[in-house]
Design goal:
29 helices, four-stranded parallel β-sheet
Amino acid sequence: TTFDRSKRLSEVACEIEQNIHVVGATGIEDKLQRGVPETISKLAAAGIKLWVLTGDKRQTAIEIGYSTKVLTPDMSLCEVAGDSANEVKIMIASEFMRLVKSGTLPLYQRQKLDQVENIQQLFFRRLRKAYGAKRKLTRLDKMKSVRDLAESILRDSRSSFDDGVEAGSPETSDGVDQDLPVVPPKVFDRATSAKSLLNDERFNLKLTQTSLRNLKLAVMNEGSPNNEEDVMSMQSFFPEDKNEGDNFDKKKRSILERLFAVDRDVRHGHLKKHAKVEVINTNSCLVSDDNEKKTTGLRAFVIEGSSLVHILGDPVLEEMVFAIASSCGAVIACRTTPRQKALLVKLVRRYVSPTPVTLAIGDGANDVGMIQEAHIGIGISGLEGRQAVNASDFSIAQFRFLEELLLVHGRYNFMRMSKVVLFSFYKNVLLAGTMIIFQWDALYSGQPVFDEWVIPMFNFVASWPIVFLGIFDMDLPKEYVLNNPQVYSPGPNNEYISNRMIYRWVIITFVHMLTLYFFGFPSLTESGSTYASGKKSNDIGNDESGNLLTVGLTLYTALILLLVLKVLFESRSIVNGSWPVYFNKSNEHWASRIPYTWFGTIILSIGLYILFLAIYSILASAGFSEDYLLFAGVPTHMAEKSTCWIIIFFTSIAACTFDVVGKVFSNMYFPTQTQIHMEIAQKHKQNRGRSSPTHPVTTQDE
């Protein structure tokens, strides 16, 4: 039966469980693996949002949530579990409106939704209408429909209550219990009571975001007679996004902070020096995270699979649910089917904004759909078979290994790949840009400044250093990352390859391009510098260094040296290895003792480049091909001229000087969080070295 099911089940149980003698009991212990709570706690501290999708019943899922630290004792649980569609919709709408009124979902507040469209939006709307184009629903239209549906559901619920419809009424025509709430949702009274409280505050003082924040803290911490939800509902009259920093004055930001800083807090003016005067006077500028959580009311969202049946399939209800879930600290979906798990992961990518990178981890066949639907799927090889492992991108033996996989290797990988991508564009633009600038002196004839057979080997000799950087570079030690999971945040914040970081690379690319060409080409071609100093010979043209092949090869050599120096400046860790590499009695494998940084820069980059020039020159001198004849003796000719060597080292070092000055200025005045943690880690390393018993002690006599 679907009517009054819980009561009837209890009656049947009471009839059966009489005069029973318990002989024994068996059970299966389904305990957590070692390290699961600690791993989840560190992932949450790293800023990773955790959703638990399980087939267990609700109470079991909640207990598991507490034991794994997904749920914390200070969280308020919002449980959605209903047998009827109407009951589930009322629960969802009530929670949605509560979050809207409390300011947790400011984008759904009326003052945001009723904003008049700007001139640009009006122009394009009328342009589409003039050409008969079908009007597409904008993001604002979808948000309005979600807000209207929530109000409609609660309005119908209240009208039904006013008409005398009570919970537990007889079955309706469809045979399903409507199970309406006994009292109308309190969210309807919040606007009236909050408005009266707002008027009282305005009568006493000028109400601002700061005074509203202080009023919230007073309600939470001092037991003010004002109702907490009344005060939180007053946030509806301040529709600004709370992430915009209401306690900070953006006008206090300097021009360099706006244009140069990569760190978001510095760029957006969220430092202590940017705080408003009234906030500093009230000492509420930097409220701790604990007080902030108490004020905003950290919540956890728990929903059953039977309730999801009434929601999934309706785009408006789906967006309402995911608006609630994305604003909560934790989400648990219990009694879910494998299909519902996969669908939830898919809908996260559709409705959560900004679009997140999803990771699904499971150990059984019922998790395969979820693993395949996520961006990254991880399977745990355990007692439940290998179906999840076979369908996943990565496989681990235990859940606790996820901590190192994400926080250490995932972080390193994103940092390294960001540098590889940026450096790859940098080196190719530098080569092409130098040839483009030369067209000014070549009268746009299409004549390249470099030899046509030297250009193709550019990527081969210039890519080795960045390849080794992409494999071995580390900015922070592994132990420090595991002890400080908050250093993972630059990855989700996209600081390594943000627009501002790309602009920096673009600027330095043009600076290096202009320095390389205008410091080198005029010095080799203008009068007075086309003749080498020192020993002279009687060979025709032997004292001249101004021919095109020699000038081009000199600039090309300076370019290769510049790329090598740039890689060394971008490396956060230099792999020096240990000597001897092969004949060593230690247990360490010889491959771990190779100085990969110097092997990639000196041997594979500069060494292969010199070897290529030698082979090319020998083939040209031997008349191997008519295309090679012009290059005969050019490398030797360049190597004998002191002017060429001065240009090679001077231009590459001068170009790097701009890079070094920019990095020093940035690290000293506008450091990123990663840079600060690097300095702290280096300080810890120095302190450990001083306290080590094997560390040599220097006395004054010495």
